[in-house]
Amino acid sequence: MTRPIYIALIELKRYLADRGDLAFSLALPIVLFALMYAAFGQDIQFSGTAHIIDQDRAQRSRDLVSRLKQSDVVDVELHTLEDADDALDRSAILSAIVIPAGFTSALDAGEPVALTFKRRGSGGDEGQIVASIVSSVARDMAGQAQTRRMVRDELDDSIAADAEIDRKLASLFDQARETPPVAVEIRTIGGSVDFVDRMLPGIVVMFLLFAVTLGAQTLVEERRTGTLERLMTTRLGVNQLFAGKFLASLARATLQALILLSLGFAILRVAGPWVFVQIMIFILFVAAAVSAVGLVIGAVARTRDQAAWFAVFFTMFMTIFGGTFFDVGDTGPLAVLSKITLNRYAIDAMVAILGEEEGILQQGLGMAVLGGVAVVGLVAARFAFKTTEGGR
After folding, report:
1. What's the CATH number of domain 48-178, 3.40.50.1000, 3.40.190.10, 3.40.30.10, 3.40.50.2000?
2. pLDDT, tens digit, for every residue of 153-190?
């Protein structure tokens, strides 16, 4: 029983000594994870600049500029008309907003007034969004001005002073802004809200699948060069050699996952130690299934190129159709197709554990599928396993 373990230890030592394998299986996924997290893992919030030309320079125009400055998504830059036109001509800015003279008096009198949006071309996406935000604020101000006029008209014969009316309305408007009568609730449909909860398992599983390529190619090369045949001249049996190869692949995949998950947990602090332990227990099932598939490919392939193509096709199919980085849901063609992939069961289970929605004991289906693939794969690989080209 110790001979297969010795083979596994030798293979693991060789793996750790190979800088190319380490770069591919450890450095590359870390870099890819960092890039994906930087690109997609952060909450994205719009931020733009409103280039304002205030030709009114009165109470309502100053109020409009002040409200825009209080916004979390818009910065305000004030320009003269000449400076703005020059900047537009040079494409230094793509849009500008002119508050016309008489803006304040028109709002107070209930007369129509228009802001002028000057832009170069379409004004760009930012310019169009900023224009929409400014329009919304201006319409809000117009509505408040109309409310003031209506209140004053109703209180024409009242002794209430204009200043008192304005003070009370301003308080009511502020209260309405803080607690709006219509609230917007955002619900994410299909999958975890936390992008990291899916991305981290996706990266780990994808690169464990890539380990299939390394294992399959190594087995083909050792058979071609006669390494396996020479091993059979020792007291080592075929079953022991086969078991050693499986344990070596299992140990390599588990070590790779251990390092990647340790870095992810340490840097991102996605969950606590008990969740990490549960994930690593589940990883053993993933590593066993992946190692068995690698042995099957290595046993049936006749050349390194064949092994590489088989492994790459297997990896890409599982990654693309298994919902590696997005939830495919429970209905539709993609959901049906994902059920024949390892990724679907592996990642869904790991996401549930990471999100602390479920524990390892609730992942019976995933462990059963992965364990079944490992057993069937090992049986098939053993029947096809040969130590010499064209031999037994």
Report:
1. 3.40.190.10
2. 666 555 555 566 666 666 666 666 666 666 656 555 54
